[in-house]
Amino acid sequence: MLDLSNARLWFLPMTPNALFPVLANSPYSLLTISEHDAMPLDDLSLIFGEICLKAAIPVMDVYASDFTPKQKADRSPVTEADKRAEIVILEALRAHLPDIPVLAEESFAAGVRPAIGAEFLLVDPVDGTKEFIAKSGEFTINIALIRDGLPVCGAVYAPALKRLFMGAQSASAVDLDPGAALDRSRVSRIQTRKPPAMGPTAVMSRSHADQQTRDFVEAQGVVETISAGSSLKFCRLAEGLADLYPRFGPTMEWDTAAGHAVLAAAGGAVTQPDGSRFGYGKTEAGYLNGPFIAWAQPKP
User: Fold this and answer.
1) What is the pLDDT of residues 223-238, one digit of tens each?
2) Is it the case that residue 7 has pLDDT exceeding 80?
3) Per DSSP, which regions of the chain are E strands?
4) ∠ CA 137-146-172 to the nearest 5 degrees?
5) In angstroms, rounded to a whole number, what is the distance separating the alpha carbons of residues 207 and 74?
6) Where residue 221 sits, what CATH number does that domain have?
7) Do 91 and 208 belong to one domain?
């Protein structure tokens, strides 16, 4: 397993051929990771953030056009934005992390199923395709690193809202346009909140709320609900705007990993409904998630 805990990060001038920070002995070569020279995960989350910003350019080009959505074999919607963004992301990840396998939604749907080990990457180029089609703005670009079954680093970018979230050892957020350079000085730390005395607020799926979810929310004494699409639900908890997010309907690992990483870094947790660990790398299940609850404050 690769160790990413003690590396040095170099920054290059932002030119057309130097869009990302790089890790190396020389400031002129692309980032690569070896077992002997490893990167702090917070720095890796910044690189994921920059990749998301770059991938947002084709996403927003499609969003602004008169696009026609299509249907995948599982009957879920897909647009040209998913495919174009995934190409950008995979190319960047191959350059930066060539030895870590990647499970990416559109490639997976096309039959690309790399063998995974203790470390792998999960990519959802456009999470919330229904929101993308509806032009609500609540869709996201997602990249996460999984280690030993848990997301340890991730980035979530909502390009229509111009809001980027990153998480690893700590969580942060910044408002940036698609394709913008990521300036560290503008990044702010975020963290979850303690439950308000008046009672918790739940964030619910804009497209997938069901009766089981509503029953759970009532049992938790929720006094307010807010709606959000895509992995933004995890981020609403991470930035202290809500207290729990229950999901009993099906999701895939790439739908949740980056948001899970951001939330965990901000002080929250994601568990199965019985409180047990919610993990990743469920190969036999086809990387299908079961029910989960995201909490702003971990349950004892």
Assistant:
1) 999 999 999 999 999 9
2) no
3) 70-71, 77-78, 102-104, 119-127, 140-147, 150-158, 163-167, 171-175, 188-189, 201-205, 224-228, 244-247, 251-252, 269-271, 288-289, 292-295
4) 50
5) 17
6) 3.40.190.80
7) no
